[in-house]
Automatic annotation (TrEMBL):
It comes from the Bacteria. It comes from Phytopseudomonas punonensis. InterPro entries: DUF465, DUF465_sf. The lineage of its organism: Bacteria, Pseudomonadati, Pseudomonadota, Gammaproteobacteria, Pseudomonadales. This is GTP-binding protein. Pfam families: DUF465.
Length: 78
């Protein structure tokens, strides 16, 4: 079974900062939006709702990790 990679759940310590930064920084909000869209796409693939190959799924997962790293970097840099 696959599970959503919810940023508020994964980074509970940054919950308020995540919400505030999304409101005040459109670029950050876009970054989080791209992460959420990509996570949903990966979940759809993993659940068998769409055809895919392992290479595509691996590429999307790596992209999700990179986006998550950027989000954490933004949250921790002030």
């Amino acid at each position: 079974m696959t599970a959503e990679h919810n940023l508020r759940e994964e980074f509970r310590e940054y919950g308020d900062a995540l919400t505030e930064r999304r409101k005040s920084h459109p670029g950050f909000d876009g970054l989080v939006g791209r992460y959420q869209d990509l996570d949903k796409r990966i979940l759809d693939l993993e659940s068998g709702n769409q055809p895919f190959d392992d290479e595509t799924l691996g590429r999307l997962r790596r992209e999700r990790v990179l986006l998550k790293d950027k989000i954490v970097q933004e949250l921790t840099s002030g």
